[in-house]
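Retro notes
What went well: the complex prediction finally ran end to end.
Inputs used:
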Amino acid sequence: MESIIAYGIALLAAPLFPGFILKVKAFFAGKKGPPLLIKYYTVLKLFRKGSVYSTSTSFVFRMGPTVSFVTAAMALLFVPIAGASPVLSFHGDVIVLFYLFGLGRFFTVIAALDTASPFEGMGAAREVYFATLAEATTFSILVIFFRLNGALSFGEFFAGTNPITVWGGAGALLLLVIVSLFMVLLTENSRVPVDDPATHLELTMIHEVMILDHSGPDLALIELGAFFKLLFYAAFITCIVQPLQFTSPWLHALLFFGIMGLIYVAVGITESITARLKMNLVPKFILTSFALVFFAAILTTRVVS
Amino acid sequence: MDTYLFSLVVILVGGILPLFTYKKFTVMKAACVIITAIGSFTGLYAALSFLIHPVENAVISWPWLHHFEIALQMDAMAAFFLIPIFFICPLATLYSFHYMHHEKQSGKTAISYFFSAVLFVSMALLTTANNMLTFALAWEIMSLSSFFLVVFDFRNKETRKAGYLYFIFAQAGALFLFAAFAVIYSQTGTLSFDSISAMPENMKLIAFVLAFMGLGSKAGVFPLHIWLPHAHPAAPSPVSAVMSGVMIKMGIFGIIRFYMLLAPAGEIYGQIILVAGMISGILGVVYALGVHDIKRLLAYSSVENIGIILLGLGLGMLGVATGNSTMAAFGFAGGLLHVFNHSIFKSLLFMGAGSVIHKAGTGKINELGGLMKTMPVTGKTFLVGAVSISGLPPFNGFVSEFLIYYGAFYGLAHGSSFLLPMLTIISLAVIGGLAASCFTKLVGVAFLGEPRTENAAKASECGIAMRISMVVLALSCIVVGVFPEPFVHIVFRVVSGLPIAATVSPTVFIDLVRNISLVAVLFLGILGITMLLRKGLYSGKPMAKGPTWGCGFTQPTVRMQYTGTSYAMSIVGFFRPFIHSENVYSGIQKIFPGKTTYKTKVSDRAESAILETVVKPVFWVLDKLRWIQHGEIQLYIAYIVLAIVILLLAQ
Amino acid sequence: MIHLTDVILSITILSVLLTLGSNRLMALVKIIALQGVLVSLTPLFMEHHDKLTGGILFLTPITVAIKGLVIPAFLFFAVKKASIRREIEPIISYHASLFAGLAMILVSAFIVDRLPLNLPGSHALLLITGITTLAAGLLLMMGRRKGITQVIGYLMLENGIYLIGTALAREVHTLHVLEFGILLDLLAGVMIMGIILTNINRAFDDMDTSLLMRLKD
């Protein structure tokens, strides 16, 4: 029961946190910024609208948003949110989880190609390229976690006698993991310096250009899916850095969401102080994250033995 | 065993009958389809009933040419490999009912049905072969009959070239295989399979490597794969479906069979297979991204999937060598299940490709587009196949990849063999990502968007027989993906033949597979609910139609669409050292530019390397020997006499 | 608890990978400064140095100052004065360099495994980091076109040697004296380089070492 409540809270809170990013960015720009709840308003507004469909599209275009929403929502089922045990957990669920994201991406991409627009094709090509590289990092992280803890499930990573936490014996390695996980977060969720969600030139977009033709509730589903995905990666990092285990679930949840908020603030700061990379330098950025975890993985041979 | 032999006879009858009835085109096709189906279902029943209730000593043999013995034996592994044979082959025959539609080519069609039946039977015999002679015989019949099927369209020069290439590779592969047999025979002194495991270890390695070269060239392991992308586009689609879905798996079957017979001890076997798997897997899919002919692309994707299968088998072998039972069991199980899964979705995709080529007249994806609207059944089944082959849940490709991942993760636990399992996991992840890119390209460019040419716009849905085959295969993809338990059960029954794997408790994988099934069902459930909610959200709302937003450009043309080439360009560029892509760009010279052209062509590194290192030296040597071939008949007779004299004296 | 040495070494490796991947000259100089500080701090945190002798306490700040401040400052001004373009101009592409970096880590881990040394726990890691830094320095010298990147590569090479020395030396004091000598040499080298670079710049308007080929016969 506790897990389901935590899951529900996470789903409901997902649109809140991106508001933090906007606030931080506004602060750096010396502006007041939109209200914290802006994303809720946007989603509700979109839900109330109708849609325009291109005559080029087929049923694939209509399926894309739904699939990406469902996969992102399902991925959160496996995450131990705020210390509660995950709703769904079994040995090997991490593989399922990242492949679910893959499924969501597959449908987003073919929905983009369905519009026959050259720009959306371009965005799709970039998305699959960068995602492939990021996948190598992600699975290397799983390798490290398995070496450290012997678990293959998201819940077990952070539970039991030998949990994965940056405050434990292998903390130094996990610092590398956190850095590269943050880089993956930026890549997978199309944030600066990989992609700029606020840009206005279609030629330079990655994710935004793929969803140009979606409107109304479909677009709302895509947005919600994106919030869930960002929340997932933020929760992933939070689980690693969470320093204390309170006995009171409320205190624990407070700390958890507090740290998560800080991660969003960190995203906001990154977005404010860095410029986006040239498109041909993005692979290098992702490869750096891969190099870090690869090194950490090699070091696990020592830490474990 | 008797049921099994009966089924083979029936299939063979189904193949011989058309030779006599080819005057009545439709009757011939219908008869062949029905008889093949009956034979195959009997065979499928025989294989499944053997797997459920194994019979001890299902052996049969009869003497041949006084000295030799043809021996067949049914065991769990053979029965497992019989399933795809008896499942795919009748569907391919059914598919060809509407695919072979030229009544003028009735005679040719009859011959192709005959060779198909011979191919099916020889593959079945190969799986049950119980000595080296039977194995070699079935192997050769398989290679030859498939060669005749490839050159169906022999009037076309390209087809003949592809056929010759295939023939050379098949025979060179057989040469290596026979060399392996020779090594084994020199050690054991018998053609039987029984005493192979008694060979000394170093000889085992030589025999294994030789056999791997021979079997690997049939399976399409990376540097030996180059016949695949030539033969598949040349062959008719049902033939490609059988060859890629089933026949190349016979190479995999041979590798497992020989590994088990040799029962070697070292870690080197697993390491060889793993490295070969990584190379095939990654480069296969990179080349698949680089080519833009639908059947060539699928051929390269077969190379990739063979790589994934090898990764599973390699983990299994490594697990056996290091005593890691979980890795061994899950590696082998994942590899074998992927054999089965790949046979389903690859046949499905080749059939889809066949329908497209049939109706749109071209297989170049950059000339297609928008087929989802004009060919809905082909499009949807193709989409299912594409998602499955990308290894995504809730379809079947995911289940087998999951098992391989699981085995690889458990391989990490052992310190000594840490690196290879880790690289396996990373390669699987990269292969997964690249495969998704490759098949989003294929589906997105060929089936979605707007038609790029007149032909593509005029395409219409294919015949009912073709549609039925594709729908059956697509449904199988979903069934295996959502309810994998019985299939995984069968696979583990095969794997439990290995002594080490028997120590893994069946509850481990049953729990695991039930969980995957749960996730798949849950996913479909939530998807269904969300779709209903979405429908609710849209009820009573305005739904407008309009052109695609062209980012302010008001005169879009279909030629503006992203092509497959541009879609794949940056990824192919990333792998530049391993894939050669040649770009020719005329450039813009004047202020008001005239016609500009841009051409890009990807050529296979392995092909050029083999050309440089093998073909050219061989040609050079043969060139020097040209004087023997002078054209004077009298001297040729002298050669014969000389040869006989030498042979007589040597005795 | 986290071992501070592990953290420092991890960040050192991070800096090595960043140098291989960075495409801006100024960023490279900053990273090299950070790396210099980290490397010179390492001996303080080694396990068996229970007693911090006066020698270490005296030499470490100076090493930090030279590696972290003086040399980077020189480089900084060299870049500024010579108005070198900011792009790094790789001969070996960034992707290939990163993969090479990974290979180096693997190979150095392999070498350390094979060496018949009896090292305490974190010293092995120190040795791996050292060898990787050294090799990456060499790669940087080979794989980049600009003269100044070669100097930076040389600095990394020296950092690597310093780490290897720390890992292997039993007598820390002697090591420091030796190391200090090398450092002074290096300092002199960097100064000379600065002067030469400015002169080359005046002569060629560019810092591309391939232009030096014109000087042959």
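What we learned: The mean pLDDT of chain C is 75.
What to try next: split runs per interface for comparison.
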